[in-house]
Write a structure and sequence with these properties.
With 294 residues, the protein is mainly alpha-helical. Strand 2 and strand 3 form a beta hairpin. The protein is built from 14 helices and 3 strands. The longest helix is centred in the first third of the chain and has 20 residues.
């Protein structure tokens, strides 16, 4: 399988232009399949739909959840379809495979009062207070992904209009709104703290470390977690939780789902629709709390 796997990964990189992360994900699936095939002393042309179904069943026993199995199934489908197109196989054994339904898990969120508590607990006059406050304000104001915040540069920000241009998944660019509170926090940080962090290796990233380099995703996760702990918030707080909170609070406030889709950078409205389940849960809890016969 190795020559075909290598050629397919090169195809994803050069002809499809897919990200390194996606290539790595596909590579892991194909390596697992190759190991499974080798253990059964069979070969790629001898694989049928039953064998691939058995492989997926084994992956499930190994601990893969429904979402991971769904991704693995997609990897198999695009790999075997490519093999048929290239004339390496006569038929596509993966075509009949059915991907498992993803688990309907609702995203965690923070209550608006907890977010206020978090942001008000950060003292801008203390070292790195302005930077950390600006980070959390921007996450909640604009619903950014962690990677988008880490890659944000000064030239991407329009302070006068209150917009930030970000590059999201698949290299797609979108414009996000930056609220007044977030703008104030970022401006304060840029004017009064960032200049003191600038070093020889500094480029134009908005958020930088004490060494003057761009903040890594791991460091930003740590900052959010530490700030939440200092604020006395018991819930596990992480960057994507702030993104979920951003979307949920917009929906609860009456925002249109299509607008939220655009702001989050979701390619498919079905990805955004999970927040409608959160909203229904919120409505149910409010009804139960305040209705005399709830």
């Amino acid at each position: 399988m190795e020559p075909s796997s290598d050629q397919f990964i090169r195809y994803l990189a050069t002809e499809r232009g897919l990200s390194d992360a996606y290539q790595l994900s596909v590579r892991q699936t194909l390596d697992a399949l190759a190991h499974w095939v080798k253990a059964r002393t069979t070969s790629l042309p001898d694989l049928g739909t039953d064998e691939l179904a058995a492989f997926l069943s084994q992956r499930k026993k190994d601990g893969l959840n429904a979402a991971s199995l769904r991704i693995t199934t997609v990897h198999l489908k695009i790999f075997f379809r490519w093999l048929v197109i290239k004339g390496k196989l006569e038929r596509d054994p993966a075509e009949p495979l059915l991907a498992p339904r993803p688990d309907q898990t609702l995203p965690e969120t923070l209550h608006a009062s907890e977010l206020v508590k978090l942001m008000e607990s950060i003292d801008p006059s203390l070292p790195l207070g302005r930077r950390d406050l600006a980070i959390i304000e921007l996450f909640y104001s604009s619903g950014l992904r962690l990677s988008e915040l880490c890659k944000a540069r000064l030239e991407m920000m329009d302070f006068e209009e209150g917009f930030l241009r970000v590059t999201g998944k698949g290299g797609k660019t979108r414009i996000v709104r930056v609220g007044n509170k977030a703008r104030e926090a970022i401006s304060n940080y840029l004017a009064n703290e960032r200049p003191g962090l600038v070093g020889k290796k500094t480029v134009s990233h908005i958020f930088i470390s004490v060494r003057g380099t761009a903040l890594s995703p791991d460091r930003v996760r740590q900052i959010v977690k530490e700030r939440a702990a200092l604020a006395g918030i018991d819930q596990n707080v992480y960057p994507h939780l702030l993104r979920h909170s951003f979307a949920t609070h917009l929906l609860e406030g009456g925002a249109d789902l299509r607008v939220i889709q655009e702001l989050l950078g979701h390619a498919d409205i079905s990805t955004t629709q999970i927040y409608t389940h959160v909203d229904r849960h919120h409505l149910k809890s409010v009804h139960k709390q305040f209705h005399p016969r709830g």
